[in-house]
Amino acid sequence: MEEFAGTYSDGQNALALDVRVWLGGDGLHISGGGHEVIWPYDQLVSSGPVLARHPAQIGCKTLAGARLHVEDIRFAGSLMDHAPHLGHRAHNRRVLAPMFAAVLAIAALIAGLYVSNISIAAGIARLIPQGARAKMGDQLAKSMTHDRFCTRPEGVAALRALTARLKRPGSKDAFVVRVGKMGMVNAFTVPGQRIIISEKLLDFADGPDELAGVLAHEMGHALELHPEASIVRSFGLSALGSLMFGQSSNMETLAALMLQLAYSRQAERQADGWALKLLRQAHIDAAPLATFFRKIRKKYGDSGRFLTALSTHPATKERIARIEAAGHWVATPALNKSQWAALKKICD
Question: Which fold has domain 3-86?
Fold first, then answer.
């Protein structure tokens, strides 16, 4: 029985273990570092299609956060014999089905939206299934960063821990937060609850509580579907179609426009409001977010050109005042010292 070398993370800590992997009759066997597990083939999942003659990264439905990465390009082809649902065709069917459903729903209801009191752009955004929004967000995130993400395992684990702490208890939120190698202090929210934090912003933050405040703000944009609504409002339904069906010729243009997109005053206030709610329920101090904005204001002024997603809508001074007026609550650090140190080195 052929064995493959792999890297395994159980999703509970930052360690990535070297393991041996083989394909058995009862499932995928993973052995090493004190772990002896079998993943049934019908429980295997992947964020994208597993392609023959390419490295593979997969997970298991019953083990949240656990990941197996195998570089050997022979592994994917062998795996497809046992788990064809991970292949390209099956993946496309899963993604395209909700997209077509979304298009039909939009066509059926758009007339009603025009005569209702619902914001047309926001209404259309709400009709898009989460699977389709996630596909859009993943495509845009890759284009905006040129697919340059920071992936040091200990840092990724720390960022996941912070994201999990900020999520609403009992919610079905599906936030995916990544650090991108971008030459600007910025944070972006794209469709599907995908959030990108620039490497420069991570360097600019003096502590995990500052970063937690920025992340909570971006989560607010995601919860309000501001990125999806902005695409519809600013670029039209044709841009929405390009994203939904992966027309690469338009992707880079849309990504460049998203980098320059500024939300309305109302949208920024909504995101700030969510930031305070999420920080309070996570028992994380909001005052460092005000400190972060003071540093931004001191370094860049109120021009807003440095930081589109956290621009002057409303003005930085107003945002600081709102945060300070929210009061105080019992709080603990967003991350411990070792987690913060790991996160700061995520791009090393």
Answer: PH-domain like (2.30.29)
